[in-house]
Amino acid sequence: MPALQSDAAIVRLQTVACALGLCVALIGIGVLVGWAFDIAWLKTVLPGLVTMKPNAAAGFVAGGFALVLLARPRRLPARLLGGFCAGICLAIGAGTLAQYLFGVDLGIDELLFREPPQAFASLAPTRMHPTSAFAFLLSGSALCRLVGGRVHGSRLAQGTMLVVLTIALITLLGYLYGVREFHGLARYGQMALHTTVGFTVLSIGLLCARPDVGMMPAIVGAGAGSRIARPLLLGATIVPIVVGAVVMHNLRHGAYGQEFALAIQVALTVACFLPIICLVAVVLNRSDAARLASERDLREAHADLERRVVERTAELSASVESLRVAKEGAEAATQAKSAF
Predict the structure, then answer these.
(1) Which residue among 220, 254, 278 closes a domain?
(2) Distance between CA 276 and CA 297 in Å, rounded?
């Protein structure tokens, strides 16, 4: 398994996770302030968009603080408090999802604030989108798995947050491309823009919280494979999104038809990946050159060592021969003296 450069690298990534958790909590706090003082832009970010519901904001506050408390090794009371916050996040998602599944009203949607019945893109006043509820359910369960600090639980948490990250990215693409079906089922309204941002940040933060287990060592490790994976992962994420946005924009303005748009998207994606592949090739070539140089130096050092051993062996043999001759001469002299 690829190893990180040092324990300090793990600490840095866990610090990043704490910072991201704090950002998530601040998003939730900002939205709650918007509801408390009726500040529209805090609730919607941009005019005409759906509001983040108060329960969703509370879920982000709880989930963000849970990540802050659980991202780094802490004492038992702090871990238990983090688990309690994670449980709140899970309960908010589970309760809201149960209302959708069973068609009941548990009275939890308007515990904090009330929304007008004619609110934009909302099936029920002050009730979050079912996709948001499902994401909170997954996020809360993933955060709860960090309480014990076990490797298996951390791996399951990472897999769970990958699902949440996928949901958030699909919704963000819906906003970016202006496709309503991406970020909301028409019957249930829409997921708020900053809700998708919150889930994205929370997912990345939880992945950074355990950089030494699961799939993370392959990405953040110090090996050659990790150095290759990072630019490829970045390119595979950014390039299709940017190319798709450009093609979609021109398509909507009638610059070309759908078939030509598909051809342009494929061509631009290939063209954008070429420099990334070349960059990876350069990194591999440099790594291979460094390896060959090290092997050459090792062979030269080995040959020099063998030469020194041969020379030293010859010197020792000569010394032994000299000692033998001297010994024989001394013995002969001793015998001659005895005979005299």
Answers:
(1) 220
(2) 32
Sequence-separated (6 or more) residues with CB below 8 Å from residue 27: 57, 60, 64, 194, 197, 198, 201
Residues 133 and 258 in one domain: no
Residue type at 190 in one-letter notation: Q
Residue 121: left (phi > 0), alpha (psi -120 to 50), or beta?
left
Is the model's pTM score more than 0.90? no
237: containing domain? 223-339
Q: Choose the final residue of a domain: 220, 241, 269.
A: 220
Tens of pLDDT along 115-158?
Answer: 766 555 555 678 888 999 999 999 999 999 998 878 888 899 99
Task: Please write the tens of the pLDDT for every residue from 295-321.
Answer: 888 988 888 888 888 888 888 888 888
Does residue 237 share a domain with residue 124?
A: no
Residue with tokens 């078939």: 259
For residues 38 and 63, membership in a common domain is answered with: yes
**Pair 21, 61: CB distance under 8 Å:** no
CA 34 to chain centroid, in Å, comes to 30
Residue pair 194/31 in contact by the 8 Å Cβ criterion: yes
Q: Is residue 67 part of a domain?
A: yes
